[in-house]
Design goal:
Length: about 190
Amino acid sequence: MARTYTLKKRAESQAETRRRIVEAAIELHCAVGPAQTTFSMVAERAGVQRHTLYAHFPDEQSLLLECSGLYSEREPLPDPAPWRGIEDWRERLRTGLPALYGWYERNARLAANVLRDAEQDPQVREIVTLRWGPTMAAYRDVLGDELSTAQRAMLHLALSFFTWRTLVLESGLKPEGAVEAMVQAVDCARKT
């Protein structure tokens, strides 16, 4: 009986250590970005030795996968499936963009760091493609139904984090104003 109890306590301790490591890494990804986050920084923030960190995560990719997986569970990108039932593409866009822009607003710091790093770091790019790629493709599919090629190009622009940041954070539009500006831009592209 004592051995089972000891093993259970040890497993709980290991799980707690792993959780602390992942939480520390996520905090650092928000603060400086994944490409600038080192194992030494993560170990220090988590309060563990580097060898302990390596025992849980043998390489950067395994840590990135764990962090992005946990973050995706906590803050999932909006599900586009319900938007498919909206017949008018403008109304679909007026429903989908606020959901996506709301996610961007809640996760702006991390998204900015991750997307910045994805442009230069192949491992970060791979994780972004894995975690965001299928959902972004679904957005383009659901929201782009019935759109011309030029309109789809504008939709791609509308879905971009950087577009949201430019319209809302840098230009001072309210979120609903940013949505309406992009609906109009997509609509105007129909005429080109």
